[in-house]
Design brief:
- The protein is built from three helices and three strands.
- The protein has 94 residues and is α+β, with helices and mostly antiparallel strands.
- It has a three-stranded antiparallel sheet.
- The chain is elongated, with a radius of gyration of 16 Å.
Length: 94
């Protein structure tokens, strides 16, 4: 609420969901294992990809200039993490 009061309404609501079929996960599983057997591996790979997404959004400006943002990481019922972002863009990029 404080961000909305100061910077205005959010403009973009992207979501990033973990894919248990990412190569980084599949390559580390032992024979017969699924991603459900290694939640620590899944979370570590998701965290690396989340940090890359944050770098793309906020440092490399792939969606143009972000004035303010917030995000939250949640777990689905299947145990896979996903992140919700709220982005407030700068004036001319709205």
């Amino acid at each position: 609420m404080a961000l909305v009061r100061k910077y205005g309404k959010p403009d973009i609501f992207p979501t990033m969901t973990c894919n248990p079929n990412w190569e980084e996960i599949k390559n580390e599983l032992k024979f017969g294992q699924t991603s459900q057997h290694c939640p620590d591996l899944v979370v570590r790979v998701f965290r690396v990809k989340l940090e890359e997404m944050k770098q793309q959004l906020f440092e490399k400006d792939i969606l143009e200039k972000v004035k303010a943002y917030t995000y939250v990481v949640e777990f689905q019922k299947r145990g896979l993490p996903h992140a919700h972002f709220l982005l407030i863009m700068r004036g001319k990029y709205k």
